[in-house]
Specification:
It is a single chain. The strands form 6 sheets. Strands 1, 2, 3, 4, 5, 6 and 18 form a 7-stranded mixed beta sheet that branches. The longest helix has 18 residues. It is globular and about 85 Å long. With 475 residues, it is of the alpha/beta class. It has 3 domains: 143 residues, FAD/NAD(P)-binding domain (3-Layer(bba) Sandwich); 117 residues, FAD/NAD(P)-binding domain (3-Layer(bba) Sandwich); 116 residues, FAD/NAD-linked reductase, C-terminal dimerisation domain (Enolase-like, domain 1). The mean pLDDT is 94.
């Protein structure tokens, strides 16, 4: 049986690019098919533009705080919001140039653009051309989920796919969704002077995060004047002149309204599974994504999936992790299983919110005798020097000291969390982080200080003090 390729990867985002690079590096004749542009959602519509906008918002807010640092300057601070958004697009373009098709062609990957659909488990149709491969990896990503709200389709609503194309910042913004995307963009726009309202169906914002930690972020949102409507569902949108009026309802079904110049839909993401005719290849899928086993193999033995289309974690770093495993499993007879015991993520708000493992609530439901250790940013000398005193590090352990979960809210949380990630991945006890020497003064000392409490707790036990007294008496 003739095959055009050993491996065909569908999708040119984070997962697809890693998978194709891995396949070619291992000596497989590899092709990558992308419908639009290489780089995927993270480069063009997600991580890169949102973090760039957040940086601009942070810089602007820091300039407004100059007097806190003993600096006097011209108080006539002007924000050119059209230049802010152009800066975002300039950065996106700069980063997109890191992975042009030619770079991957030089690595031995055939880059093909177009819409592909399966004919059978070994055959694809690419815009009328048939091609065959021994194995496939699905890495088609995801897109913004848009709920069926009455009247929403009749207005020019925003998602992460078009919000960064705005020519200027709106005066007001209604954000539907209180998860990571909604929080990051709400905070960035608010810091840049936009009047922001958030509508969230759950009873609190950031419902997946540890409540104690998330409450620190929520307090900052309120300080910025963001209006928060939790426990409410958007049921209707009507355009009135230049404004959109969103009707919301709580559990009591009593309607109220939120009015804004623009509406941003940020209620989650849906897997890209449509138009591929995967059923012809024997691949089982649903609106939530492709069904995979622990080796990332689909219901078709020669087809694997990774990244957002496979889930359950829709993060670029998880896409890369899965892509490496999927590629190896697709090409070799021995199989590795994914391990989700220490999956970290970060919401890049200001302050940042990062986590790995279980929340305190989740840990209490699963384990008896858990321990919780905390270290406040306001007690960290570097946080004080940097005027970044809002936040805390929180770590949850079992009764033996093994880390069940860790959470940080504060400056550079996304960087600092990796100490906890390494300890949890390596199955180290919390005491190991206390034993490691940490540079002073650094924000990372919040990790050491939280771990120090593990030893303080042991030393406070009466029998240890009694033994020490005996040693001191006879030595």
């Amino acid at each position: 049986m003739h095959f055009d390729y050993d491996l065909i990867v569908l999708g040119g985002g984070a997962a697809g690019l890693v998978a194709a690079t891995g396949g070619a590096s291992l000596g497989a004749k590899t092709a990558l098919i992308e419908k639009n542009k290489l780089g995927g959602d993270c480069t063009w519509d997600g991580c890169v533009p949102s973090k760039t906008l957040l940086k601009s918002a942070h810089v602007y807010s820091m300039v407004e705080r100059l007097e806190e640092f003993g600096i006097s300057a011209d108080p006539d601070l002007k924000l050119d919001n059209s230049r802010v958004l152009q800066h975002v697009r300039d950065v996106v373009q700069k980063i997109s140039e890191h992975h042009p098709p030619e770079v991957f062609e030089e690595r031995g990957i055939k880059i093909l653009f177009g819409s592909a659909a399966f004919i059978d488990s070994h055959t694809l149709d690419l815009d009328g051309k048939r091609m065959r491969a021994k194995r496939f990896i699905l890495a088609t990503g995801s897109h913004p989920m848009v709920p069926p709200i009455e009247g929403l389709q009749d207005i020019d609503y925003l998602t992460n796919q078009n919000v960064f194309s705005l020519k200027s910042l709106p005066r007001s913004l209604a954000v539907l969704g209180g998860g990571p995307i909604g929080m990051e963009l709400s905070l960035a726009f608010a810091k840049l002077g936009v009047e922001v309202s958030i509508v969230e169906m759950a009873d609190r914002l950031m419902a997946r995060e540890d409540k104690e930690v998330a409450d620190v972020l929520v307090a900052e949102l309120k300080r910025l004047g963001i209006k928060i409507h939790v426990g409410y569902k958007a049921v209707r949108v009507v355009q009135e002149g230049k404004l959109s009026v969103v009707t919301i309802e709580g559990n009591d079904k009593k309607p109220s309204t939120v009015t804004a110049e623009k509406v941003l839909v940020a209620v989650g993401r849906a897997a890209n599974v449509q138009g591929l005719d995967m059923e012809k290849a024997g691949v089982k899928y649903s609106g939530k994504g492709v069904k995979v086993d622990a080796t990332l193999r689909t219901s078709a033995s020669n087809i694997y999936a990774c990244g957002d289309v496979a889930g359950p974690y829709q993060f670029s770093h998880m896409a890369e992790y899965q892509a490496i495993i999927a590629t190896g499993n697709a090409l070799f007879p021995f199989k590795r299983k994914v391990n989700y015991d220490a999956v970290p993520w970060c919401t890049f708000t200001d302050p940042e919110l990062a986590r790995v493992g279980l929340t305190e609530e989740e840990a209490r439901k699963r384990y008896e005798g858990i321990k919780v250790y905390r270290s406040a940013y306001c007690e960290n000398d570097r946080a004080v020097t940097d005027a970044e005193e809002k936040g805390l590090a929180k770590v949850i352990t079992d009764k033996k000291g093994f880390i069940l979960g860790a959470h940080i809210v504060g400056a550079s949380a996304g960087e600092i969390i990796h100490e906890y990630v390494l300890a949890k991945t390596s199955k180290w006890k919390i005491g190991s982080l206390s034993s490691a020497i940490h540079i002073y003064p650094t924000l990372a000392q919040v990790v050491k200080r939280s771990a120090d409490q593990y030893y303080f707790e042991i030393m406070d036990k009466g029998w240890i003090k009694s033994i020490l007294k005996l040693f001191l008496k006879f030595l």
